[in-house]
Design a protein that fits this description.
InterPro entries: Ribosome_recyc_fac, Ribosome_recyc_fac_dom, RRF_sf
Number of domains: 2
Keywords: Cytoplasm, Protein biosynthesis
GO molecular function: ribosomal large subunit binding
Distance between the termini: 58 Å
Radius of gyration: 21 Å
Number of helices: 4
CATH topology of the largest domain: Topoisomerase I, Chain A, domain 4
CATH superfamily of the largest domain: Ribosome-recycling factor
Protein name: Ribosome-recycling factor
Oligomer: single chain
Pfam families: RRF
Order of helices and strands: HEEEEHEEHH
């Protein structure tokens, strides 16, 4: 008889990872100040595959309201420009040879609402990740019940634990998101 498949510590770690990934994504949403983290979610299609921007260029902040992206390979300037424009960040690169200058615009009310909406999108991605972890946990419990002799009562007790963990993690996601939206909207 094989050991149990259900591992509560692993589920907790994976759910905490989803919250940390959300925090990292939200860190890139800046309220009017330049930050290299702003471009972290940008992926560029180069050499026939998707790559993070920081693997094809150097990102720096020479001024408080300007981001500079220095592309290493001149043939990748076009794809990097396209990726930044289509990332939904509201940035319009100015191409200067192999360097793209990204002036950070003042935040209008409309732009703040766009950023808050983007914030909600990141939160939904995190919630989907948590639900996937929950599903894996529930599937593991059913497997344990069938193959490893876990009683139905134990399975139900563990399922309640998984659900409680899921609810707590979702509440954390909502709290983190609400704080960032408040910061963005300036309320």
């Amino acid at each position: 008889m094989a050991g149990p498949v259900y591992d509560k510590a692993d589920l907790e770690r994976r759910m905490a990872g989803a919250v940390e990934a959300l925090r990292h994504d939200l860190q890139g949403l800046r309220t009017g100040r330049a930050s290299t983290a702003l471009l972290d979610p940008v992926n560029v299609t180069v050499y026939g595959s998707q790559m993070p921007l920081n693997q094809v260029a150097t990102v720096s902040v020479p001024e408080p309201r300007l981001i500079a992206v220095t592309v290493w390979d001149k043939s990748n300037v076009g794809p990097v420009d396209k990726a930044i424009r289509s990332a939904g960040l509201g940035l319009n690169p100015i191409v200067d040879g192999t360097t793209l200058r990204l002036p950070i615009p003042d935040l209008t009310e409309e732009r703040r609402k766009e950023l808050a909406k983007l914030c909600g999108g990141y939160a939904e991605k995190a919630k989907i990740a948590v639900r996937n972890v929950r599903r894996d946990g529930m599937d593991n419990l059913k497997t344990d019940e069938k193959k490893n002799g876990l009683s139905e009562d134990e399975r139900k007790r563990h399922e309640a634990e998984v659900q409680k963990l899921t609810d707590a993690t979702t509440a954390d996601i909502d709290t983190v998101t609400a704080a960032k939206e408040k910061e963005i909207l300036g309320k």
